[in-house]
Amino acid sequence: MATSPCSSSGVSSSSSSGLGADAGLEIRTRSVEQTLVPLVSQITTLINHKDKPKRSDKTLQAIQRVGQAVNLAVGRFVTVGEAIANENHELKEEMSVACIEARRAGETIAQLTDVASLDHPESDSHITIFTDKTGVVKAARLLLSSVTKVLVLADRIVIKQIITSRNKVLATMEQLEKVSSFQEFVQIFSQFGNEMVEFAHLTGDRQNDLKDEKKKARMAASRAVLEKCTMMLLTASKTCLRHPDCESARINKDGVFHRMRLALEQVIEIVTDSRPNGENEMAPISIYSGIKEFKNKVEGLRENLYFLSKENLSTMLEVILEHTEDFTDSAYTSHEHREHILELSKQAKMELEQLVSVWMQAQNQKTKDLMEDLEVAILKTCQCMNELRREVHSAATSLAADLLKYHTDHMVLKALKITGVEGNLEAVAEYTCKLSEQKEQLVEMCRLLRHVSGTEPLEITCIHAEDTFQVTGPQIISAAETLALHPSSKIAKENLEVFCEAWESQLSDMSMLLREINDVFEGRRGEKRVYLSLPRPGKHNANLKALKPVKLDTEEQAKIAKLGLELHLLTSDVDSETEKWEDQENGIVQHGQGMSSMAYSMYLFTRGEGLLKTTQDLFHQAEIFATEGTKLASVLHALSHQVHDDDKPLLLLEAEKLISMCKQLQITAKASVQGKSATFTKVDACILKTRNTMTLLCQLLPLCYKLLRKNKAGNGCLKPAPPWREDRIRAGTNSHTPERRAETFGIKSLENHVTNMTFLESK
């Protein structure tokens, strides 16, 4: 069974190998985690071989080759780490120590695996992997810990670049606030724009690399604020310069600068994983998450009657019911919904009382009748909570749908623009009151939607939307007042337009958010998409009933765990690549997302989870996956007709590779096998070939994205700035500035030296 990098501290280990890493090292990014995967795999293979009784010459040679490969790769890895230390003096001491430890551990592993030339590797006269079994485990542990340290230290350089970029933006913003002439403003704003583009690239790459979905959502929200505020800052500042004595223009401008500073601060909090004054981040508590946790505890009573107290369960329900008061106290909740929520809240209390009564009796006396009564009480309690969740979801989403439909004509905004140009202060005041009412409605809508959003990222999106309405409403009012005071001002008119567009854009985003929340509730998507391609009884192949359902046992799951982990990481990579595409309806994106979803369900199968319950389910999924890949290849062929002649051969070559891989996978998936051993071999082959296809897909997506952008640029559009990660890879060793030299060495450089290691498969 292969070990894997853990999600929070260091590298997790298998019980068989006893590997571990520094518990103080937290891996927050996928690039660091994925760099460690091949090294963990190599070392685990060596550890697993130390106890095997049969040692053929071929096995001994393979062990020695892997030991040498690990040592050589670590040597190259350390060379890059030492270069990073020399270029970044604040990290030099820590990095040098970690590099020395890694080099020493690599050399120790090479010595212990130098067994191929020995007649009797088990002899005590030679210290080898077979005679010093604890030595190789210690060396492996030291190597993983030190390599992880080097990677995490290298990652600090990326964080430092983001902080430096943020400081530049802040410094230029201070200059923009103080300017008194248009000429000076234009000059400084040009510099500010370039700095914001650089910051956007750095933070965009960081957002895609983050493992924590919650942090990714917070980063996305902050970056969205900065993007929209950049245009607001331009028009608000110009208005203030044109009308320096106008109080409403000054309030409008100050609001933009304040919001941008808060967003910049939040980005740094996420990147450095810190809070001002050491505050702990308060996770938003929603009814959805509260009910989910409550049900898990209730259902846990089936396995263990003593793992929590009745007071804990009662407190959890009280918290949930307190949050339902957000609905029952809201002026926007319909009478019907309010009555149903109150009724279900009362019923939930009664069901819990009954559950606790039976539960306490079952603790004293486990009779069959009592356990059956407990099961009934558990089912009734969970059913009541499901109905409560459904009712609050209906209340929130129906309110949202009604409000979004009602405000879709933007009548208040249109009226503000007209009355502002007319200089009608009285009418502007009247419509600002209406906008304030609309703002309160939309803020309440966001608060209620957060309770039923279903996932933490969607909860954060609801909070971001609430903040946007809270802030943008008053900014529209101050912009409208400025225009009313200066009705002939083109700049004041343009400024109001910009803030109104931001409001309209947020309303449009709310429609998409509402669809996503409904999708989660109805099971169409969630934390991760799952491709529902399995045949359903009575609707598809009738012969499926005759198939004997075969599941992997625990030992087989352990053997295939490494492949499953690699498949999981690849699906994350593909999802990150597809998120970059502006056109989500593009055939390449849709087929790529479909393949990623299916590969993810196959990964869940390796863990004994998900919708794929039997090996036959897996084989069917593999066939559908291969078909989706073939469809993608057809889209690539069509794309080849649109790209430049120089790019066509490479694209066609990759498309042919994809077709070949998909054909091989289909042949494997359709092959008939008998017996447990043969079935497992087929499962292993299907997942291996799926992994290889996903690896190719990870290379194809950025290639297609690049070619489409290049083709678009060639047709008269501005060429986009190259992605920051590509800059870092391309940066040459002859770069002169300290920043440029730092870019030469990063996670990518270190990745190349670790991932070049070859895999030794256990046989």
From TrEMBL:
Sorted UniProt keywords: Cytoplasm
A GO CC term assigned to this protein in UniProt: cytoplasm
PANTHER family with a match to the protein in the record: ALPHA-CATULIN
Cited Gene3D superfamilies: Alpha-catenin/vinculin-like
Organism this protein belongs to: Turnix velox
Any one of the GO BP annotations: Rho protein signal transduction
Pfam families xref list: Vinculin
Primary location recorded for the protein, binned into one broad class: cytoplasm
Stretch list, region Disordered: 1-20
Record bears the keyword Cytoplasm: yes
Gene Ontology MF: a single term: actin filament binding
Protein location: Cytoplasm
Top-level taxon in the UniProt lineage: Eukaryota
Biased composition (Low complexity): 7-18
Protein name as it appears in the record: Alpha-catulin
Classification via InterPro entries: Alpha-catenin/vinculin-like_sf (IPR036723), Alpha_catenin (IPR001033), CTNNAL1 (IPR030045), Vinculin/catenin (IPR006077)
Family from the record: Belongs to the vinculin/alpha-catenin family.
